[in-house]
Amino acid sequence: MTKPILRLILGDQLNIHHSWFQTRSSNAEYVLMEVASEASYVKHHIQKILAFFLAMRHFRDELRAVGHTVRYISLDDPSNRQSFSANLQELLASGAYSAFEYQEPDEYRVAKELSALSKNAPIPTRLVSTEHFLTSPDFFASVFKGHKRYTMELFYREVRKKYDILMEGDKPQGDRWNFDSENRNKLPKEVVPPPPLEFPRDVSDLVELLTTKKIQSIGRVEPKRFIWPITRDESLKTLDYFCEHLLPHFGAYQDAMHTEHRTLYHSRLSFAMNVKLISPLEVIEAAVKAFNRSKGAITLPQIEGFVRQIAGWREFMRGVYWNHMPSYKTLNFLNASRPLPHYFWDGDTKMNCVRHAVEQSLEESYAHHIQRLMVTGNFCTLAGIDPDEVDAWYLGIYIDAIEWVQLPNTRGMSQFADGGIVGTKPYTSSAQYINKMSNYCSGCFYKNKEKFGERGCPFNTLYWDFLMRNRATLEKNPRIGMGYQLLAKMSDKDKKAISDRAADILEHIEEL
Ligand code: FAD
Ligand code: DLZ
Ligand code: SF4
Fold first, then answer.
1. Helix, strand or coil for residue 447?
2. pLDDT tens-place string over residues 375-410
3. Cα–Cα distance between 317 and 321 in angstroms, integer?
4. C-beta 104 within 6 A of ligand 2
5. Structural domains of the chain ordered from first start
6. Is any atom of ligand 1 closer than 6 Å to the C-beta of 299?
7. Backbone angles phi, psi at 99, to 5 degrees
8. Which atom from ligand 1 is nearest to the alpha carbon of 271?
9. Rounded Cα gap, residues 272 and 164, in angstroms
10. In the predicted model, what is the mean pLDDT of residues 300-322?
């Protein structure tokens, strides 16, 4: 009997449709490993670690149930050397395998680690595709060949054409590519979004394992009520629920925020997709099918808004990541250097919007896009927080945070630390935007219409101060011109008052 091939499955490679698993006669042994190094390269939310371990354990069972041979190295396995490299070095040197195969890691850090290991391996090694994404980093580069800068919109149109999504011949359905301008509504009082679909399970044993093995984490979990979808079946149910109950209003309230309704009409599919329990194409196809079936109940702006997030933003961010790593991780265009204040870790702040976004994140390991971008991210940009600290927070706290998608969103789109690789301008705003899109301001200690004095909203003061502070780097940016025009109309006395109050706010940033 020939020795088997050892095939590594990383925690975010749980794709049952991968060609690896389509035949059982392939003389392969699969290995998954729970390792302390991955649970601690950043302080993760406890629900994120649980979600990865639970999803990996279920995937193991699913593979075994259909006859595959799976070696599962659990966190407390006595043979566990607690890192990918250390475990694999032992396995590869054991003489038990004829070759080693692994799928392309999504993270630069892991890709480097495994490629170094392969170079020194005592047996032949082979790298294969994850067969998950719609596009490759090379496709991304080819779309922008000869262009001075990237735009998500151009890339998104190419993906729509490539996969024939919402197309009529070579034209977009409705003769428009993008309906974003129709998708910016506050949640009206009379509209009550359906509750999110939950899959409560008792995870007490795993919580105890993490405690015993001294895995540090942030956030909270109710051990008897872990609710995230962590199997393919649950992911498909989440997708069905989304298509039936949430998609009809997805676009309309995509940017809305509300104290009582945390996830509104968002799909909560990011974890399932990022660990590859479901593929972006099947999510898009299911949503488009629901749109076609709905006979007008789901309108084009709703489905287009959803498709854009996955066929557009998700693939675009991955293209940016792989075309700019490793330097991207060090960019700090605005030279921001302030430490992240304590309330990002405990939610204890008088700023109602930040309090809600952080508390929700600590409780659920989830906040939706506009909370991440226009509340916590906006605050960090305006206050000049060190992007390394901002990245570590986002990478740790969200259940869906894996560096290839977290980094371009945080350092690029949100912090503008990349100087305009992802977006054309910083996503900053005063309280005006937050008040327009949410009900946060009405319950806040600060006054959303004021920018001076003890009760003036910090977002207002810092918004104008940010423009003044970064004048040398931002004034020439045509997309920000309006801000500087308004600033030019402001009296010197007001500008001085803003600078003074902002200096005070930043000096006492821990007390806001
Ligand atoms: P929905 O609103 O239902 O959207 C559907 C899907 O579209 C998402 O599941 C996701 O796969 C995709 N999507 C939407 N927006 C983006 C985007 N900007 N980039 C990539 N994919 C997108 N997303 C992550 O998956 N992991 C992260 O670590 C992450 N970090 C972020 C950090 C910041 C500062 C910001 C502003 C955004 C970040 N996002 C991240 C993007 C987005 O916020 C999440 O994908 C989304 O909130 C997940 O919730 P959902 O599944 O309910 O999304
Ligand atoms: C995030 C994470 C965690 C917490 N733990 C593991 C683990 O124990 N084993 C594993 O294979 N993967 C884990 N992951 C995901 C990886 O850290 C990493 O993000 C991806 O594999 C890189 O694409
Ligand atoms: Fe946030 Fe300012 Fe509104 Fe308070 S007033 S909720 S701090 S934007």
1. strand
2. 999 999 999 999 999 999 999 999 999 999 999 999
3. 6
4. no
5. 5-128 (3.40.50.620), 137-324 (1.25.40.80), 343-511 (1.10.579.10)
6. no
7. -160, 165
8. 25
9. 24
10. 97
